[in-house]
Amino acid sequence: MPCLYITTNVNLDHLDTDPIFSEATSAVSSIIGKPKQFVMVVLKGSVPISFEGNKEAAAYAEIVSMGGINREVKKKLIATLGTILQDRISVPRTRFFLKVFDTTVFRNASKL
Q: Considering only the top CATH level, what class is 3-109?
């Protein structure tokens, strides 16, 4: 089950976040190749974040998946999720950081 956790310093209280959840779920599902019903998205706003020494709109996200992650997938996730955040909550793509973690990497490494 892929889990995408997005944290931003943008106040989301008065925004319709449904499109973010929907678009992020679809993106993760199609890019990683997992069914939508197994994708979890967590979105948290109003978190103090400083990036490049200032507190302008920024976002940090982590995605954890059991397989389906490679270099090309990482690039697509960063580009697509960055665009969603830019379009929906005005976080510039240059102020978005994504940490990607594939849990199967360590399982396979332990078999060596």
A: alpha beta
